[in-house]
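Archive transcription. Copying these from loose printouts into the bound notebook so they stop getting lost. Printout 1 of 2:
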Amino acid sequence: MIDACQASLHHYFIFSIDYVLIGACKEDLHHYFIFSVDYVLIDACQEDLHHYFFFSVDYVLIGTCQEDLHHYFIFSVDYVLIGACKEDLHHYFIFSVDYVLIGACKEDLHHYFIFSVDYVLIGACKEDLHHYFIFSVDYVLIGTCQEDLHHYFIFSVDYVLIGTCQEDLHHYFIFSVDYVLIGACKEDLHHYFFFSVDYVLIDACKEDLHHYFFFSVDYVLIDACKEDLHHYFFFSVDYVLIDACQEDLHHYFFFSVDYVLIDACQEDLHHYFFFSVDYVLIDACQEDLHHYFFFSVDYVLIDACQEELHPFILWLSEVETFRFVQCIHLIKIFTIKILITSFPFVNLS
């Protein structure tokens, strides 16, 4: 039970918590994350809800704001009843919802997301579709524009044939597509996303890959950039071999990866996240590990930093081995309950 801050909750994470009752702030909730919560009752803010995330929530009842809902995320919710705003719905996300009935706006739908919805009835606008997302649709036939496709998303589509532009693909998303052949641009791919793609071979750009995302990809071979990889995300990847950059890896995320071998950067790893990783072997940075997070990791072997595990916080229900060798050499963890709050972290060094 948390009497959350009344103002900022900016980037508040709660992972794998069975029960949560929060008097949420009435203003900002900007990037409030709750993952794998069984039951949640929230008197949500009536104004901003900008980037409100809910993942794998069984039941959710929310008095949602009637105006902005800008980046409202709900993931894997069985039943959802929302008096949705009739105007903006700019980045409205619903993931894996069985039934959805929405009086959708007839104009903007700029970032309208629907993920794995069995039945959908939408009086869609006939003009803007600039950021129209459709997830887990069996068949889609679209006379797509040959120019902009800047943020065109199609998720879990069995067959897709698109005469894609050869230039912009800046935010081109394709999720859970069986086969994809794209003459991708050789320059920008700045936010190129592929989700649950069986096979992908990409002559990726050699420079930027700043936010290159791969979700649930069986096999991936990438001649990754040697410099930036600042926000390189891999979600539920079976096998990954990366000649990772030797410098920045500032926000390198790995989610539900079975095996990972990384010649990690030797300097920063400031926000290195690992989620539900079975086995991890890391030649970790020797200095900072300032915000090193591990969630539900079975086995972890880390040549940890030798100086400052500043906000390394673990809630352990059972720890078989926990010993220090200059910082932390070996941790065998069976269940981790982690609460990463906005208040100052405890220095465990």
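Printout 2 of 2:
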Amino acid sequence: MPNALHPDRMSTAERLDEVADILAAGLIRLKVRKSRALSADTRDSRLDFTAPQSGHVLVNRRRNYP
């Protein structure tokens, strides 16, 4: 969240937190923009694919006890 204080009145930690918040918001916007462009171009979702095999695993429930 942006701080309403002038940077001269903020501690070093507060200034670094504000810079980190601004950079994180920019990265999120960039990622969303790229994702929208990808979806618009391909008209597909990255999750829209056929798996080569099932993720189901058969478990042997029989146990051999000595």
